[in-house]
Amino acid sequence: MRRPPAAALAVLALVAALFAVRALAADPDVLWKIVHDRCVPNQQQHADPAPCALVDLAGGEARGHAVLKDINGATQFLLIPTARVTGIEDKVVLAPDAPNYFAAAWAARPRVEALLGRPLPRDGVSLALNAPTGRTQNQLHIHVDCLAQGVRAALREQAAAIGAHWAPLPQPLAGHPYRAVRVAGADLAGIDPFRLLADSLPGGPAAMASHTLVVVGATLPDGQDGFVLLDDQANPATADFASGEELQDHSCHGY
Description:
Blueprint: H1 6-23, H2 30-46, E1 54-56, E2 65-69, E3 77-81, H3 101-107, H4 109-116, E4 125-129, E5 142-146, H5 149-157, E6 167-168, E7 179-184, H6 193-200, E8 211-219, E9 225-233
Antiparallel strand pairs: 1-2, 2-3, 3-5, 4-5, 4-8, 6-7, 7-9, 8-9
């Protein structure tokens, strides 16, 4: 039998990975297993990140990250550490030498655009990290995808309320109360969303476990490139699970 071409093998590997994710959807470690057991070894042994789209081990496995196409949505990708990092509550993310996972997630946005087939406006790109109460996986993963058009419009309408210090938004997003802060920068190099959130919480780092964190591209009032950081706190009484992914649209409708 003739060996399938390399491109066909890559497609088959991706399909197999997607079926594996579906089959193990109840397994909270499935993302870790895909990255640690398949993507990283394949990159190290064959210079091929499959079934991931990218494995970056430039700083070593302890500081690396992988980019994986999510099974949900046509354009959604996940940024996943190659080290064992549980999530927003993991103290590792606040270590002085911690990798800048949000910067790496922002750098992955061209993959969303490639699948969409056109460029996205800066304020149409979002990076979402869910709280433990709003996620199914016990490996940190940042959702990289389109911001929902309704949320995009709401942020534009409330732009005057978003300043250099964390403050509640006047109106809810996706039915939940979010706080917001703006930061300047063309990218997230030198900007640590984890630290900015932790330093703003009355409980400090210990309070991170009940929060979600979303980063959205923005053009600031002075015309500079920047970002809006969004935070919501879980509230069981109102069925608010602090799942910032709710602000995204995995169909990229309207872009």
